[in-house]
Description:
Two copies of one chain form a homodimer. With about 200 residues, chain A is an all-alpha fold. Chain A is about 75% helix and about 0% strand. The longest helix of chain A is centred in the last third of the chain and has 25 residues. The first copy, chain A, is elongated, with a radius of gyration of 19 Å. Chains A and B meet through helix 7, helix 8, helix 9 and helix 10 of A and helix 7, helix 8, helix 9 and helix 10 of B.
Amino acid sequence: MASDTRERILVTTAEHFRRQGYNGTGIKQIVEDAKAPFGSVYHHFPGGKEQLGAEVIRTAGAMYGELLPAVFGPAPDLLTGARDFYRLAAQHLEESGWEDACPIATVALEVASTNEELRKATNEVFESWVAGATEMLEGEGLSPEAARRMAIAMVCALEGAFILARAGRTREPLHAAGDLIVAQLEAELAGAAPHRANGSDEE
Amino acid sequence: MASDTRERILVTTAEHFRRQGYNGTGIKQIVEDAKAPFGSVYHHFPGGKEQLGAEVIRTAGAMYGELLPAVFGPAPDLLTGARDFYRLAAQHLEESGWEDACPIATVALEVASTNEELRKATNEVFESWVAGATEMLEGEGLSPEAARRMAIAMVCALEGAFILARAGRTREPLHAAGDLIVAQLEAELAGAAPHRANGSDEE
DNA sequence: ACTCGACTAGATAGATCGCTCTAGCGGGTA
DNA sequence: TACCCGCTAGAGCGATCTATCTAGTCGAGT
Lengths: 203, 203
């Protein structure tokens, strides 16, 4: 039993935040869609909407961060991994009716200047994504500085492309951003001596 | 006269949208800060909050779009223009207490799946920015396809960097995104246009 | 002087907001 | 049996939301 009500509330809230943001989502709406009793929200999240929001940001953010190894892992090399990532994101976005983009971007912008607690939560998530990508890029021979800069740029390009793609209902921005990242990744990898014993060098 | 009340309402609403989004901004708050009578909102904007929102998106978007020629115009060449753009954006963002980023990004994400009318307005603004940048890049010798792709990537990188910068209260994402764009711009221009002798780039 | 439309001014309606409160259910322990 | 406690269940509070309504002010045109 534990509390799958609590889990349902978290998942449903995450879906609503991704679609319509923090301020656009009411607690009444959440409990209705989660088929949970209203009081349970304040039992499981005594801190109210803010605590619920913080937990959703962290769990949904961590879940999305796992897509990084999930997509890059099976790919034959980093470049195709990167290309796949943006293309899969575009495909998933369209198939979801232009709803399933970044789970925390809308909330991040809403709270950046109005709620310190939630702002910190979103920042931690972004930092964890950047850290994951940085580690991956360092493994390919980039210097720590170059790797981090590139990792940040990858996340920026993705987030920005999500905004334009949802506004215009088109995959074009995600493809343009993906192409940019792949091209630049190619250039940087060529410049940084790939001393990998693992056979992964072409060109 | 066209009453400057109407103008004050537009400007104040734009400021609030940029800071806290559409759903986070109440009409009461707008009229209070704009020192305007409540009824005037519905006199000047009979369509209510939605019409007000649409007009704010379009006017603020057009105003922000004018920064493109304003920054790139006086620059000695395209690369320094691009570098300046991201650095000025970062500087302005920090000086405003991490509030003055994109005037419509928050609203764009909030309404993308919930309000067709406003979604279209945000898309028109993004399209106009892309069109402006595309034209500029074509003037530098890029093919129409390459120019548009690059223009989209520039906007994506900027928007995404704004999200991370506001969340983390740091200029780093804007610098990383700017560096990425400048590097890729350099590569594409070298392949497309006759190089202009102009000893400028360093760092 | 008089009218009329543009605009100001704010009270108020009706819905919804986040949240608190009490009551009851159900199963493990004594 | 009796008791506790994690959890469900929802009525209801005060605040706030968007929007409408009436009344008043002001200036230009006749």
